[in-house]
Design brief:
InterPro entries: Glyco_trans_1, Glyco_trans_4-like_N, Glycosyltransferase_grp1. It holds the Pfam family Glyco_trans_4_4. With 444 residues, this protein is of the alpha/beta class. The chain folds into three domains: 198 residues, 3-Layer(aba) Sandwich (Rossmann fold), CATH 3.40.50.2000; 47 residues, no CATH class; 153 residues, Glycogen Phosphorylase B (Rossmann fold), CATH 3.40.50. The chain is 42% helix and 19% strand. The chain has 17 helices and 14 strands. Strand 3 and strand 4 form a beta hairpin. Helix 5 packs across helix 8 and helix 6 packs antiparallel against helix 7.
C-alpha cells in the first residue's frame, strides 16, 4: 500500500509524543513493505501576506515533505490559517495527486488541519485520523484554562474559550503573575474584564465557534478516528463525534534497542524527566518538589527535553535548576538515545498538569522496567497502579510529590520492588497490526 502520514512536526527537527508516534508508524510500515511518505511543518513565520514554502527531504529512509508556513500578521486571519489553511490544501492536493496514496493518515491535526484532510477527501483518498491531543476541540490543545485549571470536558463555551485565549496576550501576563493564587481569583477576573471590552470577547468567541464547527466537520468527514485514550474518546463522543467511526487502539512501544534498568545498589537515586519543557508538562512543579523534599540529599534529578518555545518559561526552569547542583538540565535527545537514558534512571516522573493522552515516555519507562511517578489524571492513572508499578500524586500538588520523593529517599528498596512488578507493555507490532487492518478495510 501507498500511505501518507501527516504530523505537525517530525524528527529530527522536534521530538514529542506525536512526532515519535508518526516516526514509529512510518518505520514499521516501511519494514512491512509499504511505500510511506510523511508531510510535516518545519517552521512558522509571520508576514503581511500568507505564504508557503517546502522542501522534499529524507530522514532515516523516510521521504519527508517539510513545509514552512508564512502566517498573516492580522490576528483574525492568522487564527483561521492555523486550523484551515487553503495554501496547505492546495499544496497537499498536488502532492497527493502525484503520489496517489491508498490512505492518508493524520496524526494529531495541529498546524496541518482542515486543509490537509480536505485535500485528501477531494481526491477520494480514505482518511484516518489519530487524535493524540485535544486540538480539534481546544485552540490551546491541552484543555487547560488560563488559570491552570482543567476545562469542562462535557460542554463547549465559545466565550470561555475566547477569554482563555485573550489571557495569553502580554497585557494579561502581569495580572496572572501578581494574582495567580486561588484566593484572589475573583479580583483577577474583575481586572481581566476591564482590560478587554465585551465586543472583543464576542468577536473572538465567534471565531472560536467557527473553528469548532469546522473541525467537528473534519472529524465527521474522516473515514476512521483512532483514539489511543479512552478518556479522549469519551470526550469526543460527548461532543457529538460519530461513534461508528471511533476506535480505541492503545499505544504500543517498539522493542528494538530495549535496555532495562539496573537494580538500585547504592545512592544516589537517579530521578529523571523526559519530554517537552513546557508549563503544562509541569516541569517547574517537579523541580520545586525536588527542592522541597526534605530527605532527598541522596537523589539526583536529570531533565531531558528540548528548550521551550516559551523563553520566559525556559528561563524560569533554568533559574530553578540553578538553586541545587543535584539538578541537571541535559537538553534535547534523539529517539535512539531513549533506551540508554532510561537504563541510567531509577524512576521517571511525569508531573503533567493536563490530561495527557497516554504519554509515550510512560510506556517507554515501563518497557524498561523503570517505575513511574505520575499525576493522578486519566490515562496515566489507568496504567500506573499506585504502589505497585509506580506512584501517583494529586495533579498540581508539589507538596504531595515532594513527600513521595522524600519517602523514596528513605526507602529506595521500594523502587526495586515496583520495578519487579511491572508487566510487559503492549508492543508497536500489536498496535500497528490493528491500524493496518483499518487501512485495508477503508482502502478496499
Amino acid at each position: 500500500m501507498k500511505i501518507v502520514i501527516s504530523v505537525h512536526h517530525f524528527p529530527p527537527d522536534r521530538i514529542g509524543g506525536a512526532e515519535l508516534r508518526a516516526f514509529d508508524m512510518a518505520m514499521w510500515l516501511m519494514q512491512m513493505g509499504h511505500e510511506v511518505r510523511v508531510v510535516t511543518v518545519r517552521n512558522l513565520e509571520k508576514d503581511e501576506q500568507s505564504g508557503i514554502r517546502w522542501s522534499d527531504e529524507e530522514y532515516q529512509g523516510i521521504p519527508v515533505r517539510r513545509l514552512t508556513l508564512v502566517l498573516p500578521s492580522n490576528d483574525k486571519l492568522r487564527f483561521v490559517s492555523l486550523y484551515d489553511n487553503p495554501l496547505i490544501e492546495e499544496n497537499l492536493r498536488k502532492y497527493l495527486e502525484a503520489f496517489q496514496p491508498d490512505v492518508f493518515h493524520m496524526v494529531s491535526g495541529y498546524l496541518l488541519g482542515a486543509g490537509a484532510v480536505r485535500a485528501a477527501k477531494s481526491l477520494g483518498i480514505p482518511v484516518t485520523i489519530t487524535l493524540t491531543d485535544f486540538w480539534f476541540i481546544c485552540p490551546r490543545i491541552n484543555m487547560l484554562k488560563s488559570d491552570g485549571s482543567i476545562s469542562n470536558k462535557d460542554e463547549f463555551n465559545p466565550e470561555t474559550c475566547a477569554r482563555c485565549l485573550l489571557a495569553e496576550k502580554r497585557r494579561f501576563q502581569l495580572v496572572y503573575s501578581l494574582f495567580s493564587s486561588p484566593g484572589v481569583s475573583e479580583l483577577r477576573q474583575w481586572i481581566e474584564h476591564r482590560l478587554v471590552s465585551q465586543k472583543v470577547v464576542d468577536d473572538l468567541a465567534e471565531q472560536v465557534e467557527q473553528r469548532y464547527i469546522t473541525l467537528m466537520g473534519v472529524l465527521d468527514s474522516a473515514d476512521s478516528l483512532i483514539f489511543p485514550s479512552r478518556y479522549l474518546l469519551s470526550v469526543c463522543k460527548t461532543r457529538g463525534v460519530t461513534p461508528e467511526k471511533m476506535v480505541y487502539i492503545p499505544h504500543g512501544i517498539h522493542t528494538i534497542g530495549e535496555v532495562q534498568r539496573a537494580s538500585l545498589t547504592q545512592p544516589p537515586i537517579r530521578v529523571g524527566y523526559l519530554g517537552q519543557v513546557e508549563h503544562h508538562k509541569g516541569v517547574h512543579l517537579l523541580i520545586e518538589a525536588f527542592l522541597k523534599a526534605a530527605s532527598a540529599q541522596d537523589m539526583r534529578l536529570s531533565l531531558f527535553g528540548s528548550s521551550s518555545s516559551n523563553q520566559d518559561y525556559q528561563h524560569k526552569i533554568e533559574l530553578l535548576a540553578r538553586q541545587d547542583d543535584r539538578i541537571e538540565l541535559r537538553g534535547g535527545y534523539s529517539i535512539s538515545e531513549i533506551p540508554e537514558i532510561l537504563s541510567k534512571l531509577d524512576v521517571v516522573v511525569i508531573p503533567s498538569l493536563w490530561n495527557e493522552i497516554g504519554p509515550l515516555v510512560m510506556f517507554e519507562a515501563l518497557r524498561s522496567k523503570v517505575p513511574v511517578i505520575a499525576s493522578n489524571i486519566p490515562n496515566m492513572s489507568y496504567e500506573i497502579q499506585d504502589g505497585i508499578n509506580g506512584l501517583l500524586f494529586e495533579v498540581g500538588n508539589e507538596d504531595a510529590l515532594a513527600d513521595i520523593l522524600s519517602m523514596l529517599a528513605q526507602h529506595p528498596e521500594k523502587l526495586d520492588g515496583m520495578s519487579r512488578n511491572i508487566q510487559p507493555v503492549r508492543t508497536l507490532e500489536q498496535e500497528m497490526e490493528e491500524i493496518q487492518q483499518i487501512y485495508r478495510q477503508k482502502a478496499g
